[in-house]
Write a structure and sequence with these properties.
single chain; alpha/beta; Peroxisomal Thiolase, Chain A, domain 1; 4-stranded mixed sheet; 11 helices; 32% helix; binds oxa(dethia)-CoA; ACP_syn_III_N; transferase
Length: 325
């Protein structure tokens, strides 16, 4: 049977030039390189300067993805930007990225699922592409979390970084088997009862301010390891694949211990796990496309590889997608 599949045809990323090490942070708050590395695996993060807004980083990442795909602005008819740190309340960061790239056709919108935003973005773009509503989509995760951190709160400010990553998805006719390239399936979940474990204490409709990130890290940790593996199990079941057949596991990069515990629980070998949290910190919706770009550029991810992406974020929101690269 011939069906449409959303095939990854390019990826790119962008990081601010400024690198901040754990030792740099230890001069600012009561913390240490040893604590941060032992609890999270993070060694450094990139932080945006005042000129580097989310759309600026997003435009750079999308431009790199378009170059990688050998496509131009005229080829894209959908831009989805996953972000929790938009330049402004409105217009959407996606429309600013669209304009910055010189794309004047199709639709662009932001998608808000916090750290799960990129997985939500891939799942959403896949619906547009496989139903024929769009032909080629840029899905970008772009964040400047440094702007919503409480820099006095050592329990959160050491964890996050800024950056952006993007992929180009193209609708292609496919025989539709699990061996054919493209997004095989995506499973999304959310449960708003967990709001108080990870949230921002402000917003345009409540305080009229931007607010700061607040998190009960232990509770998020427990949920991340204990519950979110359901979507990964779903992805394997729906595609008729298994952990043994997986080539690369590219999870949201929040904490090395969460990632390794999840991989162990699912029977995914440690050498198949792509880890960038040491270099990037937690860049929320940008973390997966940043990691995909690293693993693609260093030659690990090759065409035809089976790649699992997975994330959990505030809400809680969580999801997984299985991609034949
Ligand atoms: O992307 C969104 C998803 N977010 C996450 O996935 C984050 C999930 N949670 C985590 O990654 C971990 O819970 C943390 C890394 C945030 C914390 O690790 P933990 O092992 O859960 O530590 P804890 O919160 O239980 O804190 C242990 C101790 C506390 O001191 P006491 O009460 O035992 O005296 C904290 O005050 O570590 C202290 N502490 C710190 N010490 C040095 C907390 N933050 C720091 C710090 N430096 N930066």
């Amino acid at each position: 049977m011939v069906a449409l599949r959303s095939v990854v045809v390019g990826c790119g990323s962008s990081l601010p030039a400024r690198v901040v090490t754990n030792d740099d942070l230890a001069r600012r708050v009561e913390t240490s390189d040893a604590w941060i590395v032992q609890r999270t695996g993070i060694r450094q993060r990139h932080l945006a300067d005042e000129t580097e807004t989310t759309s600026v980083l997003g435009i750079r990442a999308c431009r790199a993805a378009l170059e990688d795909a050998r496509l131009g602005p005229e080829d894209i008819d959908l831009v989805i930007c996953a972000t929790s740190t938009p330049d402004h309340t409105f217009p959407s960061t996606a429309t600013q990225i669209q304009a910055g790239l010189g794309i004047h056709q199709g639709a662009a919108f932001d998608l808000q699922a916090v750290c799960a935003g990129f997985v939500y973005g891939v799942a959403t773009a896949d619906k547009f592409l496989t139903t024929g509503s769009a032909r080629r989509a840029l899905v970008v995760g772009a964040e400047t979390f440094s702007r919503i951190l409480d820099w006095e709160d050592r329990t959160t400010c050491v964890l996050f970084g800024d950056g952006a990553g993007a992929i180009v998805l193209e609708a292609r006719e496919s025989a539709g088997t699990r061996d054919d390239r493209g997004v095989l399936n995506a499973s999304l979940r959310s449960d708003g009862r967990h709001r108080d474990k990870l949230y921002v204490d402000g917003g345009p409709g409540s305080t009229g301010t931007t607010g700061h990130l607040r998190m009960t890290g232990k509770e998020v940790f427990r949920f991340a390891v204990g519950s979110v593996t359901d979507v990964i199990a779903d992805a394997f079941r729906l595609s008729g694949t298994s952990a043994e057949e997986l080539d690369w596991f590219v999870p949201h990069q929040a904490n090395r211990r969460i990632i390794e515990a999840s991989a162990d629980k699912l029977g995914i070998a440690r050498e198949k796990v792509v880890l960038t949290v040491d270099r990037h910190g937690n860049t929320s919706a940008a973390s997966i496309p940043l990691a995909l770009d690293v693993a693609r550029k260093d030659g690990r991810i090759r065409d035809g590889d089976l790649v699992m992406i997975e994330a959990i974020g505030g809400g809680f929101t969580w999801g997984a997608a299985l991609i034949r690269w």
